[in-house]
Amino acid sequence: MTVNATSRWDAADYGKNAAFVPALGAPVVELLAPKPGERILDLGAGDGALTVKLVEAGATVVAADASPEMIAAARERGLDAHVVDGQKLAFGPEFDAVFSNAALHWMLDPAAVAAGVFAALKPGGRFVGEMGGHGNIATLRAALHAELAARGYPSGSDPQWYAAPQEFTDIYTAAGFVDVEARLIPRPTSLPAGVAGWLHTFRTGFLDGAGVPDDEQADVAAAVERRLEAAFRQPDGTWLADYVRLRFSMRKPF
Predict the structure, then answer these.
(1) Cβ-based neighbours of 184, under 8 Å, separated by 6 or more
(2) Is 120 in contact with 94 (CB distance < 8 Å)?
(3) Composition of the chain by helix, strand, coil, percent to 5
(4) Separation in Å, CA 237 to CA 15, 69, 143, 189, 232
(5) Can you tell me the distance from the alpha carbon of 188 to that of 222, in angstroms, rounded to the nearest whole number?
(6) Which long-range CB contacts under 8 A does 88-91 form with residues at least 24 apart?
(7) What is residue 233's DSSP assignment?
(8) With contact defined as beta carbons under 8 Å apart, do 95 and 125 qualify?
(9) Model's pTM, two decimal places?
(10) CA distance linking residue 46 with residue 194, whole number of Å
(11) CA gap 23, 32 in Å, rounded
(12) What angle do helix axes 110-120 and 165-174 make, rounded to 10 degrees?
């Protein structure tokens, strides 16, 4: 399994349009409850905005992400950051905890991720995180696919793994984890840059794969935004998207 081809990131654009992602990850950090002296792997760390919070708690943190551009941004924050495919983790049992926020849904071989995380943890170590869950951005995705179809583009699949709790639990239990807890959290989420800005940040790679030329992508994004105005635009002019998160915790047995 290779890195998701639609996972294409621009660190500056992400920092401008997607700062809400690490900001809304604060409850997941609280669930992890990092302790001074712990060694933690941040899986899918992105530009490291949330990784910094783990370091500030006194943990020694290794940041891992498949995007060289995002890892470069994380290193600029002074983090110990490495380009790593989360589906091909090669760490031994060296971490007290693994943490992940808004990343696992980009990794399309979840069994490989689970096996790698299990191997990376010390006995008794915990895995805590959050990802897109079943039903995440269903309305937004439908509007995007409808617009592409109207323009004659083969939208195909939009490859993310938005897991249901039981599906997620079964995979991680099979990998050897115990005390697996996973639950869906509907979380309507404000899009600071609107739908068009969100699409530029999160779906440029998908539009590339669908064959949409660079000079047409902004027009496609604007058209999708118009399709969603009645559903997503609030009276104050802000945009609210249909996010659903899957929050989880588990541990490796002693």
Answers:
(1) 133, 134, 135, 164, 165, 244, 245, 246
(2) yes
(3) 40, 25, 35
(4) 22, 32, 19, 14, 10
(5) 21
(6) 88/1, 88/112, 88/116, 89/43, 89/64, 89/113, 89/116, 89/117, 89/119, 89/120, 90/116, 91/41, 91/116, 91/119, 91/120
(7) B
(8) yes
(9) 0.93
(10) 21
(11) 15
(12) 50
pLDDT in tens, 124-134: 999 999 999 99
| Distance in angstroms (rounded) separating the CA atoms of residues 73 and 93 | 27
Strands (DSSP E) along the chain, which ranges? 39-43, 60-65, 80-83, 95-101, 121-132, 178-186, 189-190, 240-241, 244-251
Domains of the chain: 11-137+160-190+245-251 (3.40.50.150)
Which 3 state secondary structure label does DSSP give 91? coil
Is 251 buried (19+), middle (13-18) or exposed (0-12) by CB count in 10 A? middle
Place of tokens 């639609």: 6
Residue-wise pLDDT for 160-208, tens only, equals 999 999 999 999 999 999 999 999 999 999 999 999 999 999 999 999 9
**Which tens digits make up the pLDDT trace of 62-119?**
999 999 999 999 999 999 999 999 999 999 999 999 999 999 999 999 999 999 999 9
Q: Which tens digits make up the pLDDT trace of 13-50?
A: 666 655 667 778 899 999 999 999 999 999 999 999 99
Cβ partners under 8 Å of residue 82, min gap 6: 62, 63, 64, 71
| Location of structure tokens 């900001």 | 23
Q: Are 250 and 175 in contact (CB under 8 A)?
A: no
C-alpha to C-alpha distance for 222 and 220, rounded to whole angstroms: 5
User: Among candidates 31, 52, 26, which has minimal Cα distance to 251?
Assistant: 31
